[in-house]
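Problem: given the chain below (431 residues), write out its structure.
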Amino acid sequence: MTTSIRFLLLLLFAVLAGACAEADGPSPTPTRDSSNDQSSDSNVPDETADSDEDDQFVMLDESSDDQTSDDSSDTTIAQECEPHVELCDESGTSILRCSRDGEWFDPSPCDEDEVCEMGDDGPECVDCTVGVNCVSEEPVCTPNQPLCADFQTAAICNSEGQIGQATGCQPGRCFGGGCRTSGQTTGAICTANTGCVGRLCLCGDDAPTTDQVGFCADQDLRQGYCSTESCDRNGCSPNEVCVDMSQSPDFGSEHYCVERENCSQRLANCAGGHRGNAAVCRSLPAVNCVTGTRTWELGCFAPPPSDPADACADNAFCMAPIGGACNSNADCIGGLCMKRNGLSYCSAVCDENMGCPGYAECVRIDSSNNAYCLARAVASNDEPEPCPRDAVEFDINVQFFPRLRDGISTTVCFFKGGGPDTLSLPPDLCE
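Solution.
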């Protein structure tokens, strides 16, 4: 009985315990099993976790790819130049500087009278005003040809048309692109062109025509005069003047070097020098064909006619001064022979760029636009006697004409009664 009761009580207790467990819900997963499962499946990614991680990885990867692509694109565009490089621009008027990021800064322009040139320390703006030797972008000479850079410097023109390798010619001179060291200097007595360093002997045996020798026979150049032909291109030494003798057709209408050493006052004898008292200081026309200007400079040369009333009688290089007598334009140092009533007067065309010698004035003598050089009627250091031809037989007297430079009337020596009735203007200079 007792045993049966115990058995029934235990059975009842088991039934009640099961009912209570059912009421509380399903049993939780045993800790041991969960731990074992997770441990055993740790190498198998959870689908949800893997999906999130993959999405996150892909997003970062795309962002990284985009960033890499952008950086590469930016680098290609920005690298216009090598960082920190400095150059002259193509026009040669500005300096270009490259930034550290490989981009050009805005050009730094040179001043108006400057150009950009590459120096030892990089590009620099160099002054190119008159008188400064500045390399030009334009060719200045014939490529690969010899030339004279100046009176005493021979050079070779490089392939870019710029003056390249240079050689000094001291104590000689450069002529025709080469150094000449043998021969006499300007003004020396000569008989042949080869005897002169400038390869020209005026009135020598190599005269271009027999007439020239005849012209020289009766005046002070008959012993020959060393010079340089075409000095407007070949140049003259610092103690010489390049004289325009283009109005003397018998001598090739050329420009020649004339010595001016020891020449300080017009009509005074040239003390010393090659010719001593055989030459006098004269106001000679010096023409610059590059600038289109004419000035008058003192140089030692053959004297003018002893009597201003005497024409040169076709003697070459007589070249009568302003106010002198003449037969034709070739007789006048200014290249213009005016005539009136059988009388004559040497003059020269003048304007703002083409001046007159110190003993003359540039005046207007009529209503035309032309102006002419006429001898002053007042005494001066250049012309010690006013109107040297003021005589009845020459019909030359003091006249009043307006000066070109200011319109003020001034006194000059000229024909009485008006201007010339015969006038043949010379060709323009440097034509």
